[in-house]
Specification:
This protein has about 190 residues and is mainly α. It is built from eight helices and no strands.
């Protein structure tokens, strides 16, 4: 069913991004550094958005889509070894943000969207669960929010702005990248400056 020549993401692509990040003196407070890290994150989100589109268009069946998502996840979430500890921490932050993206698209492909609830309700429930130190529940709520984002529901910016810094805010950042990717799944150019 799928086009055997269709490649959604490769280790080489991820490594090119990591090399580019390693070559930069990153300062997350500096606009160019922040943009580079966001482009890295968006690029992975775009890859999974393209997989979802291929699934919705019938170019991939459920099993193939699941395999493609798992392949991208394995590349992007693999342990990264950088010479600079601060750079490694920044990459880890990008990887953390992408965790619910992978789970959400997997859930969407297998089970669709929840019958009840909105993105805002699930994000608030995740924040509440994080406050109660129930990280698994927080992630579960954000996965449900992510399936709704994949389905076209908006992630309200005001809800994201309400969040205190923590895992949920990082995860919501990833869902924001997913939302952007689902709206316009174009490739982020690696050579972009």
């Amino acid at each position: 069913m799928s086009d055997p020549d269709e490649t959604f993401y490769t280790e080489e692509r991820w490594q090119n991004w990591l090399d580019r990040v390693a070559d930069q003196e990153l300062d997350p407070e500096e606009e160019d550094s922040a943009r580079l890290l966001l482009n890295l994150q968006d690029d992975a989100a775009i890859a999974v958005a393209k997989i979802v589109r291929a699934f919705e268009d019938g170019r991939l069946d459920e099993g193939e889509a699941g395999e493609e998502i798992a392949s991208v996840r394995d590349v992007v979430l693999a342990e990264v070894d950088m010479d600079d500890e601060e750079t490694e921490m920044l990459i880890d932050g990008v990887q953390t943000s992408l965790v619910p993206v992978f789970y959400a698209v997997e859930e969407y492909v297998v089970g669709g969207t929840p019958e009840e609830g909105t993105v805002a309700e699930y994000v608030r429930a995740a924040a509440e669960a994080e406050g109660e130190e129930d990280i698994d529940a927080a992630l579960g709520y954000l996965v449900q929010a992510g399936t709704l984002v994949v389905d076209g529901e908006e992630l309200p910016i005001e809800v994201a702005e309400e969040l205190e810094y923590g895992l949920v805010s990082e995860w919501v950042n990833g869902l924001d990248s997913l939302q952007t990717a689902m709206a316009d799944p174009e490739v982020v150019e690696e050579d972009e400056d």
